């Protein structure tokens, strides 16, 4: 007997042997037992999930010599003929090569004739979506009212291409991708009967590569057996199927977590040396990061990932090394890098640069935490009076803050009436703070109303979309009229770029219209980087800027101390001003 590939040798012959489609096989068995079998079926689903096999089992169950039964006997002549594809009453047609109106007209003529030996004449049309529009139209009447001995079974991977007039005349059954565990169990039964030695990790790799298709899994196993024989190692599977070794992905994650740039370069060298496709490597690494993110956000991540127990534990330990925001940022960097690799004439270099960016990425503070820290700095600034004033000596000479030690010594050498001088200096500082507050605030009667509206808009937006609301809290209300609201953000800032995105602007416009109860146009503008303007209302040419004298004073004194503290806190730098 000629050799049969595993996909044909181990093809299911009863409804119970169909893997992962119990919701369909149970319904068909009930229909047979209750004598409620329809005259037309449509089986849809991905490749290799059991559509054609189920159609053949249904044909055997209906035409079995001792039947109809909920399962065929597989021993009578009719069952054997259907199994071997030689039955005159079960006709299998390839829709891709018999797609024209002439073939359908011939089929329509043949349905008039009664079956040669069986109860039913059954037409199984595979890839039925390939039929032309004229062919479908020619089939309509026959499909709706066929002779009582005719049953149609259509199979397709693309049901959206089938006309609605055909869909409405069929009972539709959607076949699902086969779960990973069931694919592994089926492969395990096959290798036991074939007396093949392969460890569970190898079966997992084959099942993962099959993407829920049992036929693909059996074909891959067949290919590996042809290469490695009866004793299959994990290395054999990786070599034959061109898979990225799981250890390489694991080492890459560890290198990124420890900021080990040199190790990242060694991994790129290894991947390139073994001839792996660099895009495929990026996709596998993206899948790895996806699993880490799911572990962070899900209470039961094992149900969302196709991993062994050992791998799941390793993933959980690695996820503890990252914050969620950091994983999210790393995923975005890698996704962008994968696109650059696909378009670049130097893919290896682009992969190296991508991994370097990822390995040097600093831990990211959550937006809410950043806002809290900025608000704390702002409150600290207002309480201390961050604007440093030049101190005048008793002789009238101007003394800079750098000479504060000398000032302190001079005070110590003053007579007892220096207490009055200290009191006077304290009063002067309080006066300076009051003057500063008067200069930086709008008229209280009008500003209070706008301030309440602005704060209310931020709270309303946060309730609807927390991320968008957090971005909005970092902006400034520049101008507000009955038809337009202008919101300013620091120039070249991350949140300014995000708010310019079409989706975020559209959501913000909807929130503004819903909160203000009128149609509003949202304008996003850029402001020069400033401190202490958060929550302020600004108009026209003001743009919340300080006067020229303050800018000169700030430059002379080495910069605003709050700016320096914020830069140190967030590891930032000034790119414009």
Q: Would you summarize the structure shown here?
A:
The chain is of the alpha/beta class. The chain has 26 helices and 12 strands.
Question: What report would you give on this structure?
Answer:
The protein is of the alpha/beta class and 577 residues long. The chain folds into five domains: 6-174, Rossmann fold, CATH 3.40.50.300; 180-241, Helicase, Ruva Protein, domain 3; 246-359, Zinc Finger, Delta Prime, domain 3 (Up-down Bundle); 386-440, no CATH class; 445-545, GMP Synthetase, Chain A, domain 3. It is built from 26 helices and twelve strands. The strands form four sheets. A five-stranded parallel beta sheet has the order 2-3-4-1-5, covered by helices on one side. A three-stranded mixed beta sheet has the order 10-11-12. Helix 13 runs antiparallel to helix 17. The relative contact order is 0.05. The model is unreliable at 386-402, 436-440 and 530-558 (pLDDT under 50).
